[in-house]
Amino acid sequence: MFKNVFGSGFLVRTAHIILTWVITLILFLHDTDLRKQEESGHLIQPVLFVLLVLLSVLLYFTVSLMDPGFVLSDDRDLLFTLGITEEQDDMIPPTTKSLRQRRCGHCLLQQPMRSKHCQTCQHCVRRYDHHCPWIENCVGERNHRWFVLYLAVQLLVLMWGLHMAWSGFMFAPTWQLWLHANGVLLGAAVMEAVLSLTVLLLLGSHLYLVSLNTTTWEFMSRHRISYLKHCGIDENPFDRGALRNLWGFFCGWGTVVWEQVYFREGNDPI
Predict the structure, then answer these.
(1) Spatial distance between the Cα atoms of 25 and 85, rounded to a whole number of angstroms
(2) What pLDDT, in 10s, does the model give residues 130-149?
(3) Exposed, middle or buried: residue 171 (CB in 10 Å: 0-12, 13-18, 19+)?
(4) How far is CA 165 from the centre of its chain?
(5) Around 184, how many Cα atoms within 13 Å sit in the side-chain half-sphere?
(6) Which of the four, 113, 144, 186, 264, has the lowest number of CB atoms within 10 Å?
């Protein structure tokens, strides 16, 4: 289920952890509200902040190391388990929208619908969203919800840290003296501001796409994807309404056979 922590992406993960704890240490070493409350014996906010940072680190390793949904074998056994026989699968009528599973030219396995081969991970990934260099892993069917949760927690940590950094700036009569006194804290604040904006945009875009039941890959490459290029511009065969899409994304834990959703009653035949 999880990759080797010392495998591919070790340097990226190490850099992320070092940056996280260096910025946290800077916030506690300067005259911020966190340090003031710690020194006065009011430990609730400092402890909550550290616990939130630990949670963000735990979620980071979760999405970074877990299997995103690699396709490791053909799907005939899965279809049989879900009650779809080979005869039923072959009886799906051909129409203008229809597509058969095709074999991946790299790993030679049948690709389930919505999967894509990742050149970096060297695997096909179910419900492929994108390969994220930040976590050095693909975001797919199994870890996408955890990735969104990680972004939400990380955004909270960054915004809270930015507020704490702002509280620690000291007054100085000149810019030179001010920079000398606050330079390190200013650097941490700028880093947190840039990362906050980045994470906010990522979180917003992912929540928007999830509400439509589409992926980053499908959104960006719709015109090249065989099962979508014949659909209308505003047509999404996987869309079940925003609430059902969000519920299925965050609360559904089983493997979804997207062929069933694609060919559900009401869809045009292929």
Answers:
(1) 58
(2) 999 999 999 999 999 999 99
(3) exposed
(4) 27
(5) 12
(6) 264
